[in-house]
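Changelog excerpt

This revision adds worked examples to the README so contributors can see how folded entries look when concatenated. The first example is reproduced verbatim below.
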Amino acid sequence: MEDNIKNLGVFPSQMIRKMIEAGEIIADKKNIQPASIDLTISGEIYRMKGTFLPRRNEKIREVVENENIYKADLKNPLERNGVYLIRLNEKLLLSKEKFAMASSKSSTGRVDLQTRLLVDGYPRFDMVPSGYNGDLWLQVIPKSFLVKLSAGERLNQIRLYNCQARVGWEDMEEVYEKNKLLFDKDSNFIEAGEKVSKEGGDKLVMNIDLEGEGVGSIIGYKNISKDQVLNFSDIGGHRAEDFFEPIYATKDNSLLLEKESFYIFYTKEAIRIPGDFSGEMIAYDISSGEFRSHYAGFFDPGFGYGENGEIKGRRAVLEVRSFDNNFIFRDAQPICQMGFEKLIEPADFIYSEKIGSHYANQSGPKLSKHFK
């Protein structure tokens, strides 16, 4: 791929660190990831009448004054399907050429806790416009469980840019072949001809695995609908069977997803993210079904790759919800897409177990770090 975007793209860890030192990001350096920074919640929280977007030039606080039901308290669990607005501890004072995108953290998505970033005067979720100066707010909606939060929890993350950095379809084959991005379940490289095409655009299509290791093997999990409190700060302190029931592979390798239930699945393909790229999981074409396949979308450099490319990918975990109707899924059905973005320069550390990443070595439908 022609290197015509030098000094343009996604900001790696070392450049995020410099932005904090320069006062462009008000944040703690310990929350820096290889190509993103985690955002932390404050104790200022409101129960809102419903979800919303601010109008142009409208402050979030103005909306809060008019549309909140009451000022909530983190001492109490957040109720299921309640819409909450929480001020984040971080602030941005971006120069005019820099902007940001947001996504839920993996541990947030895997407990069906929906988060969407909001900023003053910008009627879009999860986007921070170039040159933004101000507070950051997080809309939080527990969908499956009552959730107990504490100030300082990291539910969401942002990635910083100075240009759109997505690898275009015309360059994808070269990037794919050079970095060997996808492998099958036997660790064999999947040739570019199977995954890269002009019709596929700038994203790789990935498929759901309902075959697993054979009939009777666990291929996923479904939420249990009862008023169980999940304490977000209690890592490894919950019994999985209190919140999820396992799903087992069947002879016909198919499954009926029940409307409005929440599921954890995984992809057939193992994916890896080289050190000079980041990845983003993107919802599959809506014409293929009314379901959502993920809530946490960022993949940091090094996922499934290792220090020197020694790892042949890791499966991507899917957070799936069917909206309008029950939906029949079959093994190897397309479920999501993966886009790749170029970093301005390689990050000075990668996503791995060495930095305490709970999901670095995931191989199946792994639940969040909250479970034993």
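The second example, added in the same revision:
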Amino acid sequence: MELVETVRDIGVLARAARIARGWSQQDAADAAGVSRRFVNMIEGGQHVNAEVGRILALLRALDVRITAALPADDPVTMPEAPHRDTAEPDEIDLDAYLSTFRTQPRPI
């Protein structure tokens, strides 16, 4: 399993989910209530200071969920999130997408 550790990783995940849905960047932007430029910058890993709420709105619009885990020896327990009555998101093989995008040269 790949870790999501950088803005670039989030961008790769968002792009993969958008493409899997057959959406343009504008479609994703409209669904999330953000600009197309914002989507473009997130997908390119260029918006390192992006507001977390806007990133989460984009991921929600794409039906992407990120799971977090604490180390087993960490005494902190997370409260359970409230139940949402939404359909399950489309499943994306994050490992496959991340390895695909990480091995491709970036366009100039």
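Reviewer comment on example two: The longest helix spans residues 7-21. The chain has one domain: 7-103.
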